[in-house]
Hints:
- By secondary structure, the protein is an alpha/beta fold.
- It has helices spanning 17-28, 66-80, 90-102, 117-120, 124-132, 144-154, 170-177, 204-212, 230-240, 256-261, 276-283, 297-300, 315-326, 329-346, 349-368; strands at residues 4-10, 34-40, 55-57, 84-88, 108-113, 138-141, 161-163, 191-195, 220-224, 246-250, 264-267, 288-291, 308-310.
- Helix 2 (66-80) crosses helix 3 (90-102).
Amino acid sequence: MSRIRLLLTTSDLSGGGAEREFRTLLEHLDRDRFEMHVALWRHDTEQPPPHDLPLTILRKDRSWHVLRAVRGLAHLVDDFKPDVVFSMLQYPNLVTGSALRRARHCPRWVCRFLLSPQRDLRGLKQTWARRVLPRANVVLSCADGLTRELQAFLGTTNVPVQTIRNPLDVSAIRLRSTRSDVQLPDSGGFTIVHSGRFVPQKNQRLLLHAFAGMEDRSSRLWMLGEGPLESQLRSKARELGVADRVDWLGFQTNPYPFYRAADCMVLSSDWEGLPNVILECMVCETPVISTQCPHGPDELIEDGVTGCLVPTGDMGAMTAALNRLHGDDSLRRKISLAAHAAVEDAYGNARSIQEYSALFQRLAKETSA
């Protein structure tokens, strides 16, 4: 039986949660069933693709390179002749849709969204999306709330939208969380960790205000990440009088030892998809405090049982949750054990990979019928 030809594309494999998800998919899809080719926009590969997979770089390094990326991907589709094309993330989905309109070969197309189209596709991008997304055979989302939003966004186009949870390599995360070669900052007291890009969506200003309001003035905050707002956030920490208790640790290729060593993790976002960092901290047995933002956190966390949910943008509620976890060791332990059991049962790698495989195989059969 011949293998299904599968072309998988996104912008890059830098260090974010979406990129880790894409890398996990590449690693775990069955080579006996799928002949795969990877197309990336650029060589930003903190998490390089598996060495056994052919890789094409489309050389989209600047915004004005978009036409070059569209042409390059269309040529690759015509040369490789995939049965199914899979794309992930909003902007790569639009480029892929345009490339497939240009290509002579006509594969099935699956595009995956991880964030709200209403927030991330505005102006010309929204017009572009409404033009190319009806070409998709299936639109995937990572959370039920996001699926409903995508259905509303697509309206009467009759494009099916379904949820497949993020593939999570539980055993790899657990193993990497115990690595002894990762240098952790000194911390003698209660330690909070945050991991994410410093961008408006993540609202780290809220976290800094909540941290500054804690009763314990010896607590520390580890900030993992980088981004355009870093200098503003550092200034805000100085303004709030907590700069000496905040460690700016930059991007970490292996964040899991930091998660495991911390007493809790805080996600302060105004919106999300299905935050991988919550799942990863659950694996690392680290209690999570998260805003109840759309979408995802309330699908992952049962408030008070497997984590703590606070209203989006509510600094007082976040400070109260931090004080509560700080003052109750037994509660932190109870939450961490319940969360670890829940994530292992519902979000292990096997289920998502099986769902992806079944979808790709079904679409490939439609192509050959």
